[in-house]
Design a protein that fits this description.
Elements lengths: L5 E10 L2 E11 L4 E5 L6 H8 L7 E6 L2 E2 L2 E4 L2 E4 L2 H8 L2 E4 L11 H11 L5 H14 L15 H13 L5 E5 L7 H17 L3 E5 L3 H7 L2 E6 L2 E6 L1 H6 L4 H12 L4 H6 L3
Parallel strand pairs: 3-10, 3-11, 8-9, 9-10
Antiparallel strand pairs: 1-2, 1-4, 4-5, 6-7, 11-12
Helix pairs in contact: 3-4, 3-5, 4-5, 5-6
Length: 269
């Protein structure tokens, strides 16, 4: 059995009386492309934020390459991780957010090189060279000197992907990266993600409502509801022959809410 790159062990996350993640456990294999689907508020984004150390755990453990993420050993006991440990663990993980989060006063090139220079201490020349390689990968090398305000939403999201790739993470997290885009701009971002999936061995976790893309892209799909995994399996099973009524109900609603005709034909429920 392959050692999982991510091992989530009985984690819970509560905000006051609200339980967002409910005793959740699953593993992710190195290089696996995992799609997380489910209704809004089901805990999908919270999982990504826990992995990115943006949300603390209420209970449970997360291991990245067999090393505790939110805990560390001290005196033979597990204690809460300090900021030094979290910073080290964070180096293996990149995240692309729904709303880009680019620095408006910096150029496209500067947005991509910033982490390389500040976090890794890479010299400007080397950082610029690496950033241009990544901008070429996402089709935006010609926009290097422009500010984010001059870019379309799809272009901003592609810059955000290049920025996340700059630190060469082993794990990439994508949180509804197309939901803030106009419909005609969605494909340009999804095409970059397809290329990453085909040309790299990164482990990728994707939270999305793009069911057609999830089916084509993912090795495995997890369907979430109320902080729990209701169903897990290969895309063909989840989208063609879901075993749980809750999964079938969700997919029907998503399709009737405006999934394209092509996707509707491809997804039989």
């Amino acid at each position: 059995m392959v050692q999982p790159i991510i091992d989530i062990q009985s984690i819970s996350k509560c905000f006051g009386d609200l339980t967002v993640l409910d005793n959740l456990s699953f593993q992710v294999a190195p290089g696996e492309k995992l799609a997380l689907i489910g209704p809004s508020g089901s805990g999908k984004t919270t999982i990504l934020r826990v992995l990115m150390t943006l949300e603390t755990l209420t209970s449970g453990h997360v291991l990245i390459e067999d090393e505790q993420l939110w805990h560390m050993e001290r005196g033979g006991k597990l204690v809460d991780a300090d900021e030094t440990h979290l910073h080290k663990m964070r180096n293996s993980i990149g995240m692309v957010f729904q709303h880009f989060n680019l620095f408006p006063h910096k150029t496209v090139l500067e947005n991509v090189t910033l982490a390389l220079r500040l976090v890794r201490g890479v010299a400007k020349k080397q950082a610029d060279e690496r950033a241009l390689e990544l901008l070429d990968l996402v089709g935006l090398a010609d926009k290097r000197d422009q500010k984010p305000a001059s870019l379309s939403g799809g272009q901003k999201q592609r810059v955000a992907i290049a920025r996340a790739l700059a630190l060469e993470p082993k794990i990439m997290l994508f949180d509804e990266v197309t939901s803030a885009l106009d419909p005609e701009l969605v494909d340009e971002v999804l095409n970059v993600m397809r290329r990453l999936g085909e040309e790299t061995d990164m482990t990728m976790l994707l939270v999305t409502h793009e069911m057609g893309f999830a089916r084509d892209f993912a090795d495995r799909v997890l369907f979430f509801d109320k902080g729990r995994i209701i169903e897990s399996g290969p895309p063909e099973q989840i989208f063609t022959d879901p075993q749980e009524e809750r999964t079938r109900t969700f997919l029907r609603k998503v399709l009737s809410a405006g999934v394209s005709r092509a996707e509707s034909a491809a997804v039989a429920i």
